[in-house]
Design brief:
Blueprint lengths: L2 E4 L2 E2 L2 E2 L2 H11 L5 E5 L4 H5 L6 E6 L8 H9 L6 E5 L2 H14 L3 E5 L1 E3 L3 E6 L4 E6 L5 E4 L14 E6 L4 H12 L10 E5 L9 H11 L2 E4 L1 H7 L18 E5 L5 H7 L4 E6 L12 E4 L2 H13 L2
Helix pairs in contact: 3-4, 6-9
Length: about 300
C-alpha cells in the first residue's frame, strides 16, 4: 500500500505524532514517504524506522499557516495512494482540503488501523467506537498517542521540492502577523466567550481582559459561525481541545460539543446569567451574573494582582 505522511512539526522539530503515523503505516505493510512542510526536520524524519523516503516541501507559504496554501503545495508533492496527517487543528484542515482536491474520502481521528484499511475511530465525544472499511485511496488523520512511535534507526533518502509563492500567500502571511494572538491549544490561561455576550461589538471587552492576564481568547461554535470569528479560536468537539490551567467561560451555556473541548482544564470558572446552564456542572467556580457586571469586576481584581 502506497502511503504518504504529512509530517506534523512543532517549532523547528518533529511532533511525536509523526513517528506514530509511521508506525501506523508500518502496521499496514507500508514504507511511507514523509512530506515535511517548509522543509523542517527532514533529517529527523529520515531517521525514523520504516520511512521509505523524505521530501522537504519548501515555499513562502510555510512561514505562517494557511490551510489552502499549504494543501496546494503539499498536494503537488503527493503522487497518489493514501495520505496520513495528524488529527490536530492544522492536520484536520489540510486533510479535508486534500481530500476535496483529490476527490477521495477523508476520515478523521483514527485510533486504529488494520489490514485491508479497516479504520477505528471514536464518535459521539468518545461514547462509541466506529469501524470503517475503505476501498481505494483516502485521507486519514491519526490521533496523537493512539500508536506507539517507531524507532529511530532509519536512514531514508531526503529530497527537496519548492512550491512558488503567490499573492494569496503574501496577503495571508501579512494578516496572520498583524492579528497574531496566543493559540488557545497552547495557552496556560484561556478566556472564552459565547452567545451570552450579546454581539460582536462586545468582543473587545473579552480581548481586553485576555491582554491584561496574558490569556488566549477562545469562542464557542455558535459565535464563530454567527459572528464570523476565526475558526482557529473555536473550542469544542469541532474546534480545538484545550487543557489550560485556567479556563474562564463567559456567556457560554455549555453544550456537550463545547464541554468536550475544555472539560479537562485544571480549573474552570463560568460566568453566565442562567443559573441552570450546563457549564456550571463542570465549573470549579461559578458566577451567576451578566457578563457586563462580572467582567469589570474580574478585570479590576486581576489588575490588583
Amino acid at each position: 500500500m502506497d502511503i504518504t505522511i504529512i509530517a506534523e512539526t512543532n517549532d523547528d522539530g518533529l511532533h511525536p505524532v509523526t513517528s506514530q503515523m509511521v508506525a501506523a503505516a508500518a502496521a499496514l505493510g507500508s514504507s511511507p514517504t514523509v512530506l515535511c512542510p517548509g522543509g523542517i526536520a527532514t533529517d529527523s524524519a529520515a531517521s525514523i524506522d520504516g520511512v521509505g523516503a523524505v521530501i522537504g516541501v519548501e515555499g513562502d507559504c510555510f512561514s505562517s499557516f494557511d490551510g489552502g496554501s499549504w494543501s496546494t503545495a503539499l498536494n503537488s508533492a503527493i503522487s497518489g495512494g493514501t495520505v496520513f496527517a495528524a488529527a490536530t487543528p492544522n492536520g484536520r484542515e489540510i486533510a479535508a482540503r486534500l481530500a476535496a482536491a483529490r476527490d477521495i474520502p477523508v476520515i478523521q481521528d483514527a485510533t486504529g488501523v488494520s489490514s485491508g484499511l479497516t479504520i477505528s475511530r471514536p464518535i459521539y465525544s468518545g461514547k462509541a467506537m466506529e469501524k470503517v472499511n475503505v476501498s481505494g485511496d483516502c485521507i486519514l488523520t491519526i490521533r496523537p498517542n493512539a500508536f506507539s512511535p517507531s524507532g529511530s534507526g532509519g536512514s531514508a533518502s531526503v529530497s527537496t521540492v519548492n512550491h512558488s509563492s503567490d499573492v494569496h500567500v503574501t496577503v495571508m502571511e501579512a494578516i496572520a502577523k498583524a492579528s497574531e494572538r496566543l493559540d488557545v491549544s497552547e495557552a496556560n490561561i484561556v478566556i472564552a466567550g459565547g452567545r451570552g455576550m450579546g454581539n460582536i461589538d462586545n468582543w473587545s471587552q473579552l480581548e481586553s481582559v485576555a491582554d491584561q492576564i496574558g490569556a488566549a481568547v477562545g469562542a464557542s461554535r455558535a459565535v464563530v459561525d454567527e459572528w464570523g470569528l476565526s475558526h482557529s479560536i473555536q473550542v469544542g468537539q469541532t474546534g480545538k481541545v484545550v487543557t489550560p490551567t485556567l479556563y474562564i467561560a463567559v456567556g457560554i451555556s455549555g453544550a456537550i460539543q463545547h464541554l468536550a473541548g475544555m472539560r479537562s482544564s485544571k480549573y474552570i470558572v463560568a460566568i453566565n446569567k442562567d443559573a441552570d446552564a450546563p457549564i456550571f456542572g463542570v465549573a470549579d467556580y461559578g458566577v451567576v451574573a451578566n457578563w457586563e457586571d462580572a467582567l469589570p469586576v474580574l478585570k479590576e481584581a486581576l489588575s490588583s494582582l
